[in-house]
Specification:
Elements lengths: L4 H31 L19 H22 L11 E9 L15 H14 L3 E6 L3 H14 L5 E9 L2 E8 L4 E9 L5 E3 H6 L14 E6 L3 E3 L5 E11 L2 E13 L29 E2 L21 E5 L4 E2 L2 E3 L2 E2 H10 L2 H4 L5 H15 L18 E4 L18 E3 L8
Parallel strand pairs: 1-2, 1-3, 2-17, 3-7, 7-12, 8-13
Antiparallel strand pairs: 4-5, 5-6, 9-10, 11-14, 12-16, 14-15
GO molecular function, one term: cysteine-type endopeptidase activity
GO biological process, one term: proteolysis
Pfam families: Peptidase_C14 (PF00656)
């Protein structure tokens, strides 16, 4: 018997989806291939485009690459700092899921385009080749990370960075044999379906990406990890009163209790310092939003947690089980991260990455607070990023001078970056 109309429609739909995924994979391979066309990324086995006439420059670059490789191998034997003397800084892969109109369970992530723009500018200034992919479905996300792992020239790179901006949640898996539950993190595609955070990290471990062996891999996730709210913690500020030029000044005798929740109250004692970051307090912007799904999305999904591997760093916007926060001008976590990485100390190589990320947590925890007068349950809430690290050496992201500006590619789904 012939196929019913419904069956035929289903087959046609699957074929169309497969064609779309094949086109997506082809486009990603093309972008990754173009990254290797510049002088800065030519390796001894890489051939320049036939239309180019720089054979002498290619030979010189090939010899330089070999000398740098030997130098790196010698330097790595006895050093407490990761060696960044490879020809390229590496790839900064950014996934920005903002438009969730195709999913009935999620709202659009207003302000995420600001995060994408800030991240692109920040990592470009640090010498990274930036690849920004916008509004990916879960299937495209699942295909993207292994493809980048295998097709980018990580052998000539110092390190690798991945940032995912999307809705997130947690799931629980029951273990019947030991009567326990295990918690897992989820990252959602714009179609409303999830992938495991574990899949992102695992794609770049030593087994799946051997060209990154011994090199730092850094992952940053701007997404909710549950639906809990953080009320913050009270701290005590002690001040004395003394006289300066005939004027009474408070220093540390008068004792008062001030809540960290009151970011505006702490502006005078917790300023920008030397990070050069440009931050907003809760009084500047109304209607903060979270990256959590509605309760109807909670379901049993067999996924795994994100593991940590040697030379791997993972930083989340929020602790396990908690909401993360975002404004129409960007998320608290990503805007703070970009502000610190753009600081003069960071770009000059005078601040280690570990110290910089500690500063990011301090800024988010002390200087941000939700402002949602329309929903008092969400009003005056806090957030604190969480850092998991198995880096075995320090990282210094001193600005790298490339032979020519790095390429930047955007997919056809790019939204306007304001």
């Amino acid at each position: 018997m012939g196929s019913t109309p419904d069956e035929g429609s289903s087959v046609d739909g699957e074929e169309q989806l497969n064609d779309e995924l094949d086109g997506f994979l082809s486009a990603i391979r093309t972008k990754l291939k173009k990254f290797a066309c510049g002088f800065s990324s030519l390796s001894p086995t890489t051939s320049p485009p036939e239309s180019a006439d720089f054979s002498g420059r290619t030979a010189l670059n090939s010899s330089t690459t070999k000398l740098r490789t030997v130098k790196v191998m010698l330097a790595e034997e006895d050093s407490d700092v990761y060696n960044f003397d490879y020809p390229k800084r590496g790839l900064a892969l950014i996934v920005n899921n903002e438009n969730f109109s195709a999913s009935k369970d999620f709202s659009n992530r207003l302000g995420s385009d600001y995060d994408a723009k800030s991240l692109t500018d920040t990592f470009s200034r640090l010498g990274f080749e930036v690849m920004l992919e916008n509004n990916l479905t879960s299937k495209r996300m699942a295909l993207l990370f292994p493809l980048v792992s295998k097709n980018y020239d990580h052998s000539n790179a110092d390190c690798f960075v991945c940032v995912v901006l999307t809705h997130g949640d947690q799931a629980w898996l029951e273990r019947e044999y030991c009567k326990t539950k295990e918690r897992y993190d989820l990252l959602f595609g714009v179609d409303g379906n999830p992938i495991a955070t574990k899949a992102v990290v695992e794609a770049f471990n030593d087994e799946n990406c051997p060209n990154l062996k011994g090199k730092p891999r850094m992952f940053f996730f701007q997404a909710c990890r549950g639906s809990k709210l953080d009320d913050g913690t009270d701290i005590r500020i002690v001040r004395d009163q003394y006289t300066y030029n005939g004027t009474s000044v408070l220093s540390s005798t008068a004792s008062s209790t001030v809540s960290v929740d009151g970011a505006g109250q702490l502006e005078s004692t917790h300023g920008m310092g030397e990070t050069d970051s440009k931050l907003e307090t809760f009084r500047d912007v109304e209607n903060d939003q979270s990256d959590a799904p509605p309760w109807s999305v909670m379901r049993n999904i067999p996924v795994s947690p994100a593991p940590l591997y040697k030379d791997c760093l993972v930083m989340y916007a929020t602790p396990p089980g908690f909401l993360s926060w975002r404004r129409e001008t960007g998320s608290w976590f990503i805007q703070s991260l970009c502000g610190v990485l753009d600081s003069s100390k960071m770009r000059s190589g005078n601040m280690s990455l570990s110290k910089a990320l500690t500063r990011v947590s301090e800024i988010v925890g002390k200087e941000y607070e939700s402002f949602c007068l329309g929903d008092l349950e969400m009003h005056r809430k806090k957030e604190i990023p969480v850092l998991y690290s198995m880096l075995v050496k320090d990282v210094f992201l001193k600005r790298k001078v490339l032979d020519q500006p790095q390429n930047m590619f955007f997919n056809n789904q790019t939204t306007s970056l304001k």
